[in-house]
Amino acid sequence: MNSILQQRLVQQQLAEPSGGTPATVATRLVGLQAQEYSQAQWALGVRLPGCSAQDVAQAFADGSVIRTWLFRGTLHLAAAADVQWLLTLLAPRILAGSRTRHQQLGLDEATLHRCRAVLEQALSRRQLLTRSDVSLALQQAGIPAQGPRLLHILQWASFNQVICQGPQQAKEPTFTLLDTWLPPTPLRSREEALAELTQRYFTGHGPATVTDFIWWSGLTAGDARRGLAAAAPGLQRQVIAGQEYWSAGAGPACAPALPFTYLLPGFDEYFLGYKNRELFIDPRYVSQVVSANGIFKPIIVVDGQVAGCWKHIYTAHAVWLETRFFTPELAQGATGLAAAAHRYSQFVQRPTHLA
After folding, report:
1. Which end of the chain, N or C, is less packed with Cβ atoms under 10 Å?
2. What Pfam families has UniProt attached to this entry (predicted)?
3. H-helix or E-strand containing 8?
4. For residue 205, what are the CA distances in angstroms to 62, 76, 210?
5. Does residue 137 have a pLDDT over 70?
6. What is the full DSSP assignment across 64-128?
7. 3-class secondary structure for 104-116?
8. Cis amide prior to 183 (ω within 30 degrees)
9. pTM above threshold 0.85
10. Where are the domains of the chain?
C-alpha cells in the first residue's frame, strides 16, 4: 500500500481507530463534510467501532456535535467547542464572496438584518425550529423565504453566529440560537486560530500538502502559509517524489490491521479532504464517484485505493448493500468486504446482506 495512504487511513481513524465518542472524532478531523444527514452519521460511525446510528443521533441531540455551514461554505460536522472560533476565522471571506448572489436574490443588508431579528424572536419563543418553521416565520414577517433565498438566509445567519443546526426532526433539520445551544468557548486571536486549524488539519488528514490544506480550508494561500509557519514545530515534513507533505507524526510502523476494505459514505473526508486525488483514485473513474452536479457517492476503499461505489437498499427487516467495482480485478482484491458490511450492519442495527 502507498505509505501516504497507509498513514492517512490511520490518521483519519479508519484503520486502528482509537475509540472515543462522535465528538472526539469530530475534534480530530476538525470538520467532516455533511451534505446528507445519514451519510454524515456514517462518517462518524465508520470511525467508531461499536457506535450505532442512535449514538450519533444522540451526539447531535445533546449538542456535542454540530452540523452547520463551515469550510468552503458547505455543511460540515464539527465538535461544539470548535464551531465559534472556526466561524470567526472562516466566515468573513465566505460572506464577502456571497454578496453578488445575495444581490441577485434581493437580500440586501437591511433585509438580512430583518431576517436576523425575526429568527431571534421566533427562536426565543421556541428553542428549535424546523426549516419549514423558519420559512413560515419569515414569510409571516413579510420576507419571502423559499428555495435558494431561504438557503442563503440560513447560511448568512449561521455564518454570522446567530443560529446553528440542532437535532434532526423526522427528515428535517432544526435550527436554534447558537449562543444558547453551544457552551462558552475561549476567544482566539486570528493567528492562534490559523495555527490551531493548520495543526489539526495535518493531524487528522496528514500526510497532506499545503495545496490540499488551502483547498480544504478555503483559506487564502497567505493565511495557510502563516498557519503552517506557526504550526510547523509540531509537524513532520516529508518529501516524496519531489512533493512536500506535512503530518503530525511518522505514521504507522506497519500496515493497518485487517480489514483493508472500507465502505465509506458519500462526501467522506478520505476523498474530499484533499485537492489532489490521483494518489487514491484512477482519474478515469472519478466521474463514477462525482456526479456532474457535485454529488459525491459512497465509495469502496481497498488498501487505500478507491475501488468502486456502493449504496444501501432498506427493506422491512434488512439492508442490502449493492456494490459496483470499477473493474473485476479491483473486486477480487476486496477481501475484507464482508467484514466492512458487518461493521455497517452493527451501525444501523439491522441484518445486512451484500447484493
Report:
1. C
2. AlkZ-like
3. helix 3-11
4. 27, 15, 12
5. yes
6. SEEEEE-GGGSEEEEEHHHHHHHHHHHHHHHHHHTHHHHHHTT--HHHHHHHHHHHHHHHHH-S-
7. HCCCCHHHHHHHH
8. no
9. yes
10. 12-181, 261-354
pLDDT in tens, 228-247: 999 999 999 999 889 999 99
Q: State the sign of the Cα–Cα–Cα–Cα dihedral 115, 61, 341, 12.
A: positive
Amino acid at 310: W
* In 12-66, alpha helices (H): 22-29, 37-45, 53-61
> Which residue's C-alpha cell is 444558547?
180
The helix or strand, by DSSP H or E, that contains position 341, with its residue range, turns out to be helix 337-348
Taking Cα atoms as reference points, which of 259, 262, 292, 258 lies closest to residue 280? 262
Q: Alpha-carbon dihedral of residues 120, 125, 126, 127, nearest 10 degrees? A: 60
Q: Read off φ and ψ for residue 264, nearest 5 degrees.
A: -100, 150
Beta partners for residue 207, in sequence order:
none
The answer for residues whose C-beta is within 8 angstroms of residue 278's C-beta and 6 or more apart is none
